[in-house]
C-alpha cells in the first residue's frame, strides 16, 4: 500500500497549466521566439551601440557590411539599430494597447455580467462598437487628434497615447463579451450565493471570487490582443497615419521602404519579417495558452 | 422568417443612424480644422466666406440633417435619374467632395468597380481554397495535410497583408518580372490580350487577400467538419454501409457548411477593410485608396460618406448572416 503523497505546496493550478503548455511544442516555440524578440529589442541597443538617428549622407543605401550588418537606409541610418529601437516602440504600443483594451473589456464585461440592470445598455454599446468600421474610424481618429495631442504632449508621446488609446477603444468588445458570459455563469454558482448571503459587498465578490475565475479567458484574449494591436499599429503606420517619420516603428519602416522596394527589397522585408514573426509567435503562444488553460481540452 | 427579417431591418436603421451621427460628430467636434491646409496668405474674411461656401456656417445638427437628406434622398434620386434617363432628380444641393468639388456619389461610383473586382475575386478564390483544405484537414486530423493547413492558416492570420503584398511584389515583379506591381485602371478589356493583362494585374492583389480569407475560413470549415464527424448520424450512415465519400460530401459537409456560410457572410466587411491596405500596396484606385487620399486631404464629406458605407456593409452582412443561418438550419427559429 502506497502512502498518499503529500501535495507539494508549490504545485498550485498554475503548475498544471505550465505542464500542459510545456508539452505543446508550437506554443513553446512561440513563447521562446517572443522572448527572443523581446531580448533583441530590449538588450540589442545596449550591445549594438549605433545611433539609429545618425544620418550619414556618404553611406546611403549601403548593402550589408561589417559596419552595418543589414545595411543603411536612404539617409544612411543603420537598419539594425533602427529595427531594435523600432521594435521597442512597436512592442510597447502592442502591450499598452492590449492592457488598456483588455482592461476596458474586463471592466465592461464584469459590470454587464454582474449587474443585470446595466447589462442591456452595455451590451447595446458593445454591439454598436462591433458595428463600427474599425480601420476607417482609427484613421479618422489619428487624422483628427494627431496635431492637437502632439502640440500638448510632444510629437512622440502624443501620437503614442493617441495610437494606444484608439486601438484600445476599438478592440475591447470581444473581451467584454467573453467575460460577461463567464461572469453570468459564475454568478449563479453556490459559492457566490454563499458570499452574498453573508453580506459580502459586490465589489469584494467581484475582486475575490469572480475575477480569479475569469482569469483564463482574459489571459488568452490578452495574449491574442497583443498580436492584434501590433497588426493594427503596423497597418496604421503603413498607411502613413501612425508615428511620424523620425520615430521608427516596424510598420513605419515598411512604409518608408516601400518606395525603394524595387532597388533595395531587403529594407522592406526585414521590418516586415519582424512584424510577422512577432505576431506569429504571440498567436502560437495564445493558442497554446487557450488549450493549456482549459482543463477539459 | 419574414417578420424576423423586417424586425432586424427596422433595428438596423437606428444603429446606422447612430453610427453616422458618431462619425459626423467625431469629424465635427475634433480639434482638427478642415481649413488648416489652406494657404496662410488667404485673408480672414475670405477664409470665412470659404467656410460658409463649404457649408460650415450652420450649426452641426443642421449640417447633419442636410447630410442625411443628401445621402438618402438627393444622391439616390440623381443616380436613379442617370440610370433610367427619366428626370427624377430631387431638388436640393448635392453632396460635394471638398477635394474635387464633384458629387461624392459619382466619385464613389467610379471607384467602386475596382474594389468589387479585387474583393469579390479574392473572396471567391479564398473560399475555393479554404473549403477543400478544411475538409482534407478534418478527415485526417494531425496528418501532414492538416499540419500544412494549420501552418497556412497561422501564416494567413499572422502575416499582415502589407507584408505578403510587398513580398509578392519583390518576388513576382522585381525578381521574376512576371507581373506588374502597379494596377493600371485605364486598361480596358477589349480582346484576349487586354484580358490577359487585366488578369496579370489582378493576380497579386487578389492572391494577397485570398490567402487572408482562406486562413480565416479554412479553420472554420475544419472545426465544423470535426464537430459533425463526431455526431451520431455519421455513425448511422457509416453503419448503413455508405462509402466514405457519401459520408463526407453528402452528409457531413452539408451540415458543416451551415456555420461556415454565416462566417463567410460575416467576413465580407472585414475584407473590404483589408482592401484599404491592399489597394494602397498595389495602387489600385478603389474606394480604399479613395478613403486614404480623402483622409490625407481632410475631405470630410467623402470620409464621412465612405465610413458610413463601411458601416452599412457591416450591419448589412451581420443581418445576412443571421437570416442565412435561420434559412439553412431548420432548428433555428427566431420567432
How does this model look, in words?
The complex is a heterodimer of chains A (297) and B (335). By secondary structure, chain A is mostly helical. Chain A is built from twelve helices and no strands. Chain A has a single domain, classed as Orthogonal Bundle (MetI-like fold), CATH 1.10.3720. Chain A has helices at 13-22, 25-47, 79-114, 116-130, 134-153, 155-169, 173-187, 190-197, 202-213, 215-238, 250-258, 265-293. Chain A is globular, with a radius of gyration of 23 Å. The two termini of chain A are 32 Å apart. The model of chain A has no long low-confidence stretch (mean pLDDT 83). Helices cover 76% and strands 0% of the residues of chain B. The longest helix of chain B is centred in the last third of the chain and has 39 residues, at 244-282. The interface between A and B is large, with 42 and 45 residues.
How do the helices and strands line up, and which of them pair or pack?
The complex is a heterodimer of chains A (297) and B (335).
Chain A: H1 13-22, H2 25-47, H3 79-114, H4 116-130, H5 134-153, H6 155-169, H7 173-187, H8 190-197, H9 202-213, H10 215-238, H11 250-258, H12 265-293
Helix pairs in contact in A: 1-12, 2-3, 2-12, 3-4, 3-6, 3-7, 3-10, 5-6, 7-10, 8-9, 10-11, 10-12, 11-12
Chain B: H1 2-29, H2 44-53, H3 60-84, H4 104-139, H5 144-158, H6 161-175, H7 192-229, H8 232-239, H9 244-282, H10 287-296, H11 300-328
Amino acid at each position: 500500500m502506497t502512502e498518499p503523497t503529500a501535495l507539494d505546496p508549490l504545485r498550485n493550478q498554475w503548475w498544471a497549466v505550465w505542464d500542459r503548455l510545456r508539452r505543446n511544442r508550437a506554443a513553446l516555440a512561440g513563447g521562446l521566439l517572443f522572448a527572443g524578440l523581446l531580448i533583441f529589442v530590449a538588450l540589442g541597443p545596449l550591445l549594438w551601440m549605433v545611433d539609429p538617428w545618425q544620418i550619414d549622407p556618404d553611406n546611403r543605401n549601403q548593402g550589408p557590411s561589417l559596419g552595418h550588418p543589414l545595411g543603411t537606409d536612404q539617409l544612411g541610418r543603420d537598419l539594425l539599430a533602427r529595427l531594435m529601437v523600432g521594435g521597442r516602440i512597436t512592442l510597447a504600443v502592442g502591450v499598452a494597447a492590449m492592457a488598456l483594451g483588455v482592461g476596458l473589456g474586463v471592466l465592461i464585461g464584469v459590470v454587464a455580467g454582474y449587474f443585470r440592470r446595466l447589462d442591456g445598455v452595455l451590451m447595446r454599446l458593445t454591439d454598436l462598437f462591433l458595428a463600427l468600421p474599425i480601420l476607417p474610424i482609427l484613421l479618422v481618429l489619428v487624422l483628427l487628434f494627431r496635431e492637437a495631442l502632439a502640440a500638448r504632449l510632444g510629437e512622440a508621446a502624443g501620437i503614442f497615447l493617441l495610437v494606444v488609446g484608439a486601438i484600445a477603444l476599438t478592440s475591447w468588445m470581444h473581451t467584454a463579451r467573453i467575460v460577461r458570459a463567464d461572469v453570468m455563469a459564475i454568478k449563479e454558482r453556490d459559492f457566490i450565493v454563499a458570499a452574498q448571503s453573508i453580506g459580502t459587498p459586490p465589489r469584494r465578490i467581484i475582486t475575490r471570487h469572480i475575477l480569479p475565475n475569469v482569469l483564463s479567458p482574459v489571459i488568452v484574449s490578452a495574449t491574442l490582443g497583443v498580436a492584434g494591436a501590433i497588426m493594427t499599429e503596423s497597418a496604421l503606420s503603413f498607411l502613413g497615419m501612425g508615428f511620424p517619420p523620425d520615430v521608427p516603428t516596424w510598420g513605419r519602416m515598411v512604409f518608408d521602404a516601400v518606395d525603394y522596394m524595387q532597388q533595395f527589397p531587403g529594407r522592406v522585408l526585414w521590418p516586415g519579417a519582424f512584424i510577422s514573426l512577432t505576431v506569429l509567435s504571440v498567436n502560437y503562444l495564445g493558442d497554446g495558452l487557450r488549450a493549456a488553460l482549459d482543463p477539459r481540452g | 422568417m419574414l417578420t424576423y427579417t423586417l424586425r432586424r431591418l427596422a433595428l438596423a436603421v437606428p444603429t446606422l443612424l447612430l453610427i453616422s451621427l458618431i462619425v459626423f460628430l467625431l469629424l465635427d467636434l475634433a480639434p482638427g480644422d478642415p481649413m488648416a491646409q489652406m494657404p496662410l496668405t488667404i485673408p480672414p474674411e475670405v477664409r470665412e466666406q470659404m467656410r460658409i461656401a463649404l457649408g460650415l456656417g450652420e450649426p452641426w445638427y443642421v449640417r447633419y440633417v442636410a447630410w442625411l437628406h443628401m445621402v438618402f434622398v438627393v444622391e439616390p434620386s440623381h443616380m436613379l435619374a442617370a440610370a433610367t434617363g427619366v428626370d427624377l432628380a430631387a431638388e436640393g444641393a448635392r453632396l460635394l467632395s471638398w477635394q474635387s468639388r464633384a458629387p461624392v456619389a459619382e466619385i464613389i461610383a467610379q471607384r467602386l468597380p475596382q474594389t468589387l473586382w479585387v474583393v469579390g475575386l479574392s473572396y471567391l478564390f479564398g473560399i475555393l481554397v479554404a473549403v477543400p483544405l478544411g475538409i482534407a484537414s478534418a478527415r485526417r486530423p494531425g496528418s501532414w495535410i492538416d499540419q500544412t493547413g494549420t501552418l497556412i492558416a497561422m501564416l494567413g492570420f499572422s502575416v499582415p497583408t502589407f507584408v505578403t503584398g510587398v513580398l509578392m511584389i519583390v518576388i513576382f515583379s522585381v525578381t521574376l518580372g512576371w507581373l506588374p506591381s502597379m494596377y493600371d485602371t485605364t486598361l480596358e478589356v477589349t480582346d484576349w490580350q487586354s484580358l490577359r493583362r487585366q488578369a496579370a494585374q489582378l493576380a497579386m492583389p487578389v492572391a494577397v487577400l485570398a490567402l487572408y480569407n482562406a486562413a480565416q475560413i479554412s479553420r472554420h470549415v475544419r472545426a465544423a467538419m470535426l464537430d459533425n464527424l463526431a455526431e451520431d448520424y455519421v455513425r448511422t450512415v457509416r453503419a448503413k454501409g455508405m462509402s466514405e465519400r457519401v459520408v463526407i460530401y453528402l452528409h457531413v459537409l452539408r451540415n458543416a457548411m451551415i456555420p461556415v456560410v454565416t462566417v463567410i457572410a460575416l467576413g465580407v466587411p472585414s475584407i473590404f477593410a483589408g482592401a484599404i491596405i491592399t489597394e494602397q500596396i498595389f495602387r489600385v484606385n478603389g474606394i480604399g485608396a479613395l478613403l486614404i487620399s480623402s483622409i490625407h486631404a481632410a475631405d470630410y464629406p467623402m470620409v464621412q460618406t465612405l465610413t458610413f458605407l463601411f458601416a452599412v456593409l457591416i450591419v448589412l452582412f451581420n443581418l445576412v448572416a443571421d437570416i442565412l443561418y435561420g434559412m439553412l438550419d431548420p432548428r433555428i427559429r427566431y420567432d
